[in-house]
Amino acid sequence: MTDILLEDYCPPAGETDSPTCEGKFLQLVLDEHSYLVFSPGSLHRYHNQMLACFLQGKDIAHHWVTEERLTFDTARLRVIGGGRFRADRQTRVLELWDDSHVFGRFEERGLAESIARAEHPWSSYEVRIS
């Protein structure tokens, strides 16, 4: 896996009493850049809601066909898969597991090494994939 960009919608450490952020994540490729996008469950319950937020942030047209079904018309984006995560600021551990019911499981080969090379506070965390 190539270098990866990490984006998270977790509240900053100073804005929450909890040392952890837990929710869902997506692995995707946009314009040849690999991304991991993390969102707490309190913000987005479903992977497609996270994707809509990401697309909006990148000014990529998308629309909801139904309450559950999101579509986007661009060849620039490929969703690899998703899962669940827990990031713990105290233990400095990032756990990744499960899969997305809509997008399938993430590609774990080389993922821990790519996260370690990313420019993000979690890049120094121990990554545990199950």
Sum this structure up briefly.
With 130 residues, the protein is mainly beta.
What does this structure look like?
- A hairpin with a 5-residue loop joins strand 4 (62-64) and strand 5.
- This protein has a single domain (4-129), classed as Pyruvoyl-Dependent Histidine Decarboxylase, Chain B (3-Layer(bba) Sandwich), CATH 3.50.20.20.
- It contains 2 helices and 8 strands.
- The two termini are 18 Å apart.
- The protein is mainly beta and 130 residues long.
- The chain has a 6-stranded mixed β-sheet, sandwiched between helices. It has a two-stranded antiparallel sheet with strand order 4-5.
CATH topology: Pyruvoyl-Dependent Histidine Decarboxylase, Chain B
Task: Note the total helix count.
Answer: 2
Strand order across the largest sheet: 1-3-2-6-7-8
* Structural domain tally: 1
How many DSSP-defined strands? Answer: 8
N-to-C CA distance: 18 Å
The largest β sheet comes out as: 6 strands, mixed
Which class of secondary structure composition applies to the elements? mainly beta
Helical percent range?
A: 10-25%
What is the succession of H and E elements?
Answer: EEEHEEEEHE
Q: Could you tell me the radius of gyration in angstroms?
A: 14 Å
Overall spatial form: globular
CATH architecture: 3-Layer(bba) Sandwich
At the fourth CATH level, what is the homologous superfamily? Answer: Janus/Ocnus
Can you identify the CATH class?
Alpha Beta
Strand content: 35-45%
